[in-house]
Amino acid sequence: MKPIIGVLPLVDEKLESYWMLPGYFKGIESAGGIPIMLPLNNDEDCISQMLEICSGFLLTGGHDISPSLYGEEPINDSVVCCFDRDATETILFKQAVEADKPILGICRGIQFINAVLGGTLYQDIPTQYPTTVEHHQSPPYDIPIHSVEILEDSPLYDLLKIKTMKVNSYHHQAVRTLAPPLKEAAVSEDGLIEAVYMPQKRFVWGVQWHPEFSFEKDENSRKIFECFLHHCL
Asked: What predicted TM-score, i.e. pTM, was given to this entire model?
């Protein structure tokens, strides 16, 4: 049987709706999984049932992480949060980690994983980490825009067998101080952490770039989805 993967929804508060980019679903499907979009629900018993149903979880992009999650206040109006997502994902992540369920975090997902485990974030890269590297590209989003160095002692290197790769990029927040349970897996050419993993767990990975946009063209993006689904079997 194919593994069922719980995918956290994107949220449009103006339209009072949940929504989904098809690339998240198609990336999972192409790697052999069945994606389902989860509700935002802060009931621990309901989330426990989600864990019983799902073999793994994909933490998607979207809203900024609330600075309150890592003990700060917003630095400017660029920080736009969804507190319902933060609350649901906090409960879900803690339960999933305890159960050793595979987790893949993309963009906001890597940031959330770092924050909920005790790390901090750059709330706004242009303000707090000025750089000439483009981290917030314009469409089309499947085009690589900058390079990352993959650390040779990481499972990402074990998977891809390359030291550098070109990635797409669409974010204005990023990992600042790394959470103690995490290790770096990739770093951008200007020094920002671009991928992390939790070595003591079966599969908890986060990537700052967007394989959901690039997996149809890029073999490395496909391999990340395939590795995630392999660990969900």
From this structure: 0.98
